[in-house]
Structure formats: structure tokens, C-alpha cells
Amino acid sequence: MDMIWNAISQVFQPYMILIILLGNFIGVVVGALPGITGSMAIAILLPLTFSMSAAEGLMLLLGIYPGGIFGGSIAAILLNLPGDPPAVMTTLDGYPMAQKGEAGRAIGMATTASLLGSLFGILCLIVIAPTLAKFALKFGPPEYFMLCVFGLSSIAAVATKDLTTGFVSCLIGLLIGEVGMDPVFSVQRFTFGQVDLLSGLPFGPLIIGLFGLAELLRQVLGPMETLHLRLQQIRKVFPSMKDLKTCMPAILRGSVIGTIIGALPGAGATIAAIISYNVTAGSDKNPERFGTGVIEGIAAPESANNASVGGALIPLLTLGIPGSTITAILIGAFMVHDIYPGPLLFVDHLDIVYVIFIGLIVASFGFALFGFLSARFAPLILKAPPAIVTPLIAVFCLVGAYASRENPWDIGLAVFFGVFAYLIGEFGIPTPPIILGYVLGPLVETNFRSSLQLSGGSPMIFVTRPICLVSLILTIVILLYPIWKARLHKGILSDRGSLDKL
Questions:
Q1: Do 171 and 437 form a contact (C-beta atoms < 8 A)?
Q2: End-to-end CA distance of the chain
Q3: Model pTM?
Q4: Cβ 133 vs Cβ 314: under 8 Å
Q5: Alpha-carbon gap, residue 167 to 169, rounded angstroms
Q6: Phi and psi torsions of 458, nearest 5°
Q7: Which of 250-254, 391-395, 408-412 is most confident?
Q8: Which of 25, 355, 480, 494 is deepest in the core (most CB within 10 A)?
Q9: pLDDT, average across residues 460-469
């Protein structure tokens, strides 16, 4: 008990609070900037922690972690430009809400859901870390493969009313993810002799082109009235009791999903956001509402991706296994101070463990503070004249594309994918499944090949393992549901027509 009070007194020192808030601020800003991720910010600032104490250095980096994940929702809602892959799901309903004049309400709910999801994940980290870590160890390559297949199938089914266009979009994303070197045989794929493509297509220019530049083209080339958004109602930043009551089931569901998925090494916040959004949409009485500006469509992915923070730290602290890219970088921060994550961490450095627990709680409220402030002031950007805002966003996108790797080649990639996304959008092909196919594609390929190696080439490994079988059944259900619903709706209309004739 004395150790807990010592940790509380250590975290709540003014200097430590400032460090956490600084990390939150950096994380939120970086997360909102397309092309710059929270993992990049942590990697860049990691050397600064070498001269700090272990507690101070970890608090700075752990402040950036949840702030970066949340920050992606701001640009996703205001500009349809997700700063991080998990925020792709937030664009589906967040940007339509901004177009309706509800940007402040959308960011307020994103902040609240992120805060509640983060606190839930941290609580699970504190209470049930060993149990969830043992469950995560049951996931091998076959389980990860089926989990990714479920994620791709569900987003294809939900992202658009037409299942075919959804699958086409996912297929495009999977093909884009194949560009570069083969992970097993080191053979070039789809590089066309370009050295810049050997490491694959970079995430920053890709997402900036697909979402940012494509949206600008739609605004410029579309009817003039589409350039003008309604003035934003920002008087009420905090969610109303009605919105909280409406979104609470989605928040609770997303928090549970995010924590569990986050605890799976390699899964991460993106898969958590995908599954949470699709489960929420699929369980709704009117799933066709999602994608048109439904507030539950913000609460579900935002609660999940922030709950994954606590979940990702579970295998890191208890087993020494990174649950995400960011936690892999955090291992370096621990080792610099001669602290090695794993079972012995709770024996040799229990004081640091308590500091981490309490610091994460403070960090959650810290990024929520910046979130509510952004909800109050960020929507003001949409009141600016389009003739000024549109060129500025275009410049911002091109600079962001260049800044991701400081390579002029990336500017051309962003422009190419912007034009490409605009053209396929004219045929009704959605862009969110593309980026999710790109993110999950390498995981699908690697785990599929590893699974076949384990089974000696037999595909039966994907149905004989319990977790794989459950994922397969869920995939089939989510794919057949739209077909069944369409036939049911057609049958109802047919019956009504027969009655009208009578």
C-alpha cells in the first residue's frame, strides 16, 4: 500500500503532470496530422528520455500514446482525413456529421468515448492483465489470419450498400499492400523497377491521397454549394445525456472489443476499431443508418481504439511481448533504464508498474482536456471561406506527404492516389476498405503462409482450431446477412404489392 501512495505522490507532482500533458499535446497534434503517426513521434522523442529518470521518460511517451490515437479523430471528423489508420472508421460517420453542422458534437462524443474506452482498458490492465495475457498466447498464425479475414469481410459488408463494390475496394487495398519485397523470398513485387517502391507504398502519402486530395477534388469539381459547409454549432461541446444514453452500449461494446483485440500481439487499434464499428452497425435495428452521420458510428471505433492502449500494454508488461508498433518502441524506453518488461517486472520494479498505472489514468484525462478544447475551437476552421481553406488544405496535404519520408517521390504518390480515389468514387467504390486492406494485407499474407507451413499445406487448420472456426462462422454470418436482409426486404415489398392488388 505504501508503494501505491508513493506512486501517487510521484505522478501528481507539478513537474510530472506537465510532462504528461506535454506528451498528450504532442500526441494529439501529431495524431491529427496525416502522414505523421504516434509511433513516429515516440520514436523521435525517445532519445530525449535518456537523460530523464525512468518514471519521467515513460510518462512522456505514455502521454503521447493515447493522445496520438485520439488525435486522428479530429482531422477525420473535420476534413475526412484520418491521421492514423484507426481513425478511418471515424470518418464514416464523423465527416458526414461535420457536413451537417455537428462537428463540435462529433468531436465531443469522440473525446468522451475515447476517455471512457481508455479508462476501461487501463482498468483491465490493472485487474485482469495476467488472464488476458494467457488468452492472447493462444493466438497463432491461423487465428490471426482468420481475425484479419473477418475484419476485411465486415468492412466490405458495412462500408457500402453494395457488397460487390466493398470487396473490390478491399481487393484494391490488398494489392496495394503487396507492393515491395516479398517477406519470405525477398522478390520484388509490383515495383516496376522503382527503388522508392522496394519498401512498399508509404502510409502517409497513400492516406493523404485517398482521403485528403480526393475529397478536395470532389469539392472543387463538384457543385459549388458543396464547397460550403453549414456553420458549426459549437456552443455545446460536452455530449448531452441523450447522446450518452444512446452511445453507451456502443462505448461499452467497443471498450471490451478494444481491450481484448489490443491484448493480441500484432492486432492493434485498427482491427479493434474495425470490429467494434461493424459489430455496432450489425447489431443495430437499422444498420443502413451508419455512414450517414450516426453518432454511435463515432462512439464505437473511438472507444475501441483507445481501449486498445491498455490492452496492448497487457502483453508488454506481463510477458514482454509488444502488442502494437508503439509498444515495441516502448520496450526500448524500458531497456534504456535497465527495466525489462515481463513477469519479473512485477517483482523487481513494482514501483514503476504503479507509476505507469496511475500515469495512464492522468494521461487519459489529459488528452480528453485537449479533445474538448479542440471541439470548442477546431470546427471554426470550417467557417473560413472555401477559397482560402481549400488551397491551404491542398498545401497541407502535399507538405504532409513529403514530411512522412522527406522524399519528393511521395508527393507524386499522393497526387496519383488522390486522382485514383476520385475516379473510383465516381463508380461508387468506397475508399475506407482500400486503406484497411492495405494495413491488414501484410498480416493476412504472412499469417496465411505461416499457417500453411504449420499444417504442411493443409487448409483444414483454419477450421479445426476453435478460435479459427468461430471467426469463420462470424465471417460467413456477416457476409450472408446483407443478402438475407435484401431478400427479406424484397419479399416484404412483394407481399405489400400483392395486398394492394387485392
A1: yes
A2: 78
A3: 0.68
A4: yes
A5: 5
A6: -90, 125
A7: 250-254
A8: 355
A9: 87
